[in-house]
Specification:
Length: 139
């Protein structure tokens, strides 16, 4: 972990892109991981998933729970919850353990990632990302 003090208990609020679903999650922080497995690459459409994990968690759906769908990849523990309207990734509860996609949070959590996971599956182009130009907006 880095120099930021990791809180033991977190309260996270978030929503989907279209605003149909809103939530508040509470639980004990166990990690903020960047997962490079092929399942996370497929379901995010990106190089990795970025998820905050809470144990002993509770989640309150503030609005739109009827639009929430969860898909579990057969034969795996890999699940993804998302909005039926806009497709945004949303928290997935597994017993009392909660996985919260960092991108659905309304405010950035006071965290930095704890670790990269499944780096053997890392996209072949990802290691070069630090060497490419950066723009604050669309060039």
């Amino acid at each position: 972990m880095d120099s930021l003090k990791m809180p033991s208990l977190l309260t996270l609020q978030g929503s989907c892109l279209c605003g149909a679903i809103g939530f508040e999650a509470k639980g004990a922080f166990t990690g903020f991981y960047l997962c490079h497995c092929q399942h996370c690459q497929k379901d995010t459409g990106s190089a990795h998933g970025a998820n905050v994990f809470l144990e002993g968690a509770t989640i309150e759906w503030l609005k739109g729970v009827a639009a929430l769908t969860t898909y579990t990849l057969p034969g795996t523990r890999h699940s993804k919850s998302f909005c039926q309207h806009c497709g945004s990734a949303l928290p997935t509860l597994n017993g009392s353990d909660l996985r919260v996609p960092a991108g659905c949070l309304d405010k950035a959590p006071p965290l930095t990632p704890s670790a990269h996971l499944f780096t053997a599956s890392m996209a072949q182009w990802e290691p070069a990302l630090g060497d490419i130009p950066r723009f604050k907006a669309l060039p």
